[in-house]
Amino acid sequence: MTSFFAQNKSVAWVLLALALFVLLVTVLAPATGTGVLSTSFVKTLGKTLCLMLVAVAMDVVWGYTGILSLGHMAFFGLGGYMIGMWLMYARTELIIAESLRAAPIPPTPEEIHDAIGQQIFGVVGSADFPWLWGFAHSLPLQLAMVVLVPGLLALVFGWLAFRSRVTGVYLSILTQAMTLALSLYLFQNEAGLRGNNGLSGLQNLPGLDVVPQATISIWFFWASAAALGLGYLLFAWVVSGKMGSVIRGIRDNENRVRFLGYHVESYKLFIFTLTGIVSGLAGALYYPQAGIINPAEIAPIASIYLAVWVAIGGRGRLYGAALGAAVVSLLSSWFTGGGAPNVNLGFYTINWTDWWLVLLGLSFVAVTLLAPKGIGGIFDLFSRRHPVPERVGDFGPDQGARRTVEGEEEK
Amino acid sequence: MSTLLEMSGVSVSFDGFKAINNLSFRIGEPELRAIIGPNGAGKTTFMDIITGKTRPDEGRVLWGEKSVSLLKMSESQIARAGVGRKFQKPTVFEAQTVRENLAMALKNKRGPFDVLFYNKTRAGAERIDAIAEEIGLSDQLGRISGELSHGQKQWLEIGMLLAQDPRLLLVDEPAAGMTPAEREHTTDLLRRAATKHAVVVVEHDMEFVRRLDCKVTVLCEGSVLAEGSLDHVTANQDVIDVYLGR
């Protein structure tokens, strides 16, 4: 364990920075400190930590294994849906029980169940619980679903995609299709997750009505920070050592890895599923802070944003991805939330709510062209050793070396 | 000397072009074999078939004492069964250190969870050191392999092949880009490996083949043209016509 930290010095620094950040926010939060930060800002920070966790997972898939998945936010969203189902069910149950208490005849469990159904599915013109709410009454079961549902989807999708050796841009398109299909499916009322209404009121924890949102917000902030810390440790461990060596080998030349005797598809599947599960967990912490989840959250654009964060932050290093997600998502909420002042050019006023996406697009292009190492590359200025060599292509031989032309190996 | 690999009646064509045409080939263990042939004779395709990269249209490829068919196995299964390959153009993992390259090739369990929970062992480290010594890269273990010279990359790939500890070594143009002294070292190494295992060397360089001093198979247009000692095949009129006479 000590050798792990000795070999991966950045991990200790990241965890230290995270701990200091948590301390700072705790001191400034309304529930536990001076209250300089508002409750909604604490929630924004908590959500940002969850996004950082998905970005780290995305970096493992893309930056380390070379699979440009444009569908990981589907797993994030599913995690949110799974916890949201319990939150909605349990809270509605309490409300129903409260309102029926006054009734002259005590309600039967069936009556309560039906009333909950009426309450939850009234908006989509239904009153019956679809089969997929079968576990919604139980927190432990639904928490298991948070892990199992994204995990199974990643496992089945990955198995189908990797065994047919779909790679590169085709795989990216396939993952986009997956998240689009899932999103379109959930938009339907018949899918049983309230269609485009989604699940709402998730910020209200059942049975904790007396606890102010300020307190709940810091709880979730702590939980998100703990999840990010543990997730970061997990992935740092996975990408270090021999596993990291093999998956980076797969990224650079998967055929060569095959000829060394490694079953490349199993490795891709392992990474894809593991990151899918962690994304689901991050989503389960994110959406109670957001308060609402609907199918638009797993639209293809969400996963593309995820790739943009990782690219801007710097692929192939976990802290880069985390930093990219934090910087871009916080800037995004600053620009789109009216935080950035409009720029009056005389003939035209730049309204950042409209122009933020253009700015983001331009910075994405700029980073790709000018600073491929991303924000994380800044840290290379302070350390001599590069964690991941930036160049994976052929370094030689040069033209002077004896080379044979016949039957060049394809890459 | 028992038969390790036997190919019979193997044909493969790409877009109507017969790259391999009714090829039959047999190698025992231990044995050293050189394969020569003009450009386009199908030498690389021959190796692709054995390693599972290319599926033949017809024919049989049988492996080991139990004569299992390699055609039903995936590339990684074939590699685990004991077929190691050194590519013509050195293909090492350029972004990783020499040590990491060797460690990845080192004979160990290959499952994802075996690798995830893999602990570095003293035996493994000693094996890596021994191989590094053998290939002359002992003081380069910590270097990123992309920075190595072409010849050093060749050596690293040979080292990776040794680290896999395969029963059949398929070696494509090992001497390309090497100095005369290095060529001599390579010959020694291959001949030593061939005292225990089966080694197939594809080579253009006749001088190198002569130094290997082994049975030679001449491939031409996808089938075996002649087989025997180097002197025997170079005396063969067909061989002179298609290859040496040019």
From TrEMBL, chain A:
This is Urea ABC transporter permease subunit UrtC. The keyword Cell membrane applies. Its main location: membrane. It is a multi-pass membrane protein. The chain crosses the membrane at residues 45-63, 70-89, 139-162, 169-187, 216-239, 266-286, 292-311, 318-335, 355-375. It is found in: Cell membrane. It comes from Salipiger mangrovisoli. Keywords: Cell membrane, Membrane, Transmembrane, Transmembrane helix. Residues 400-411 have a biased composition (Basic and acidic residues). Residues 392-411 are annotated as: Disordered. PANTHER family: HIGH-AFFINITY BRANCHED-CHAIN AMINO ACID TRANSPORT SYSTEM PERMEASE, SLR1201 PROTEIN.
From TrEMBL, chain B:
The keyword Cell inner membrane does not apply. SUPFAM superfamilies: P-loop containing nucleoside triphosphate hydrolases. Keywords: ATP-binding, Nucleotide-binding, Transport. InterPro entries: AAA+_ATPase (IPR003593), ABC_AA/LPS_Transport (IPR051120), ABC_transporter-like_ATP-bd (IPR003439), ABC_transptr_urea_ATP-bd_UrtD (IPR017781), P-loop_NTPase (IPR027417). It comes from the Bacteria. Signal peptide: none annotated. GO terms for molecular function: ATP binding. The keyword Ribonucleoprotein does not apply. Residues 5-246 form the ABC transporter domain. NCBIfam families: urea_trans_UrtD (TIGR03411). PANTHER family: CONSERVED COMPONENT OF ABC TRANSPORTER FOR NATURAL AMINO ACIDS-RELATED, HIGH-AFFINITY BRANCHED-CHAIN AMINO ACID TRANSPORT ATP-BINDING PROTEIN. This is Urea ABC transporter ATP-binding protein UrtD.
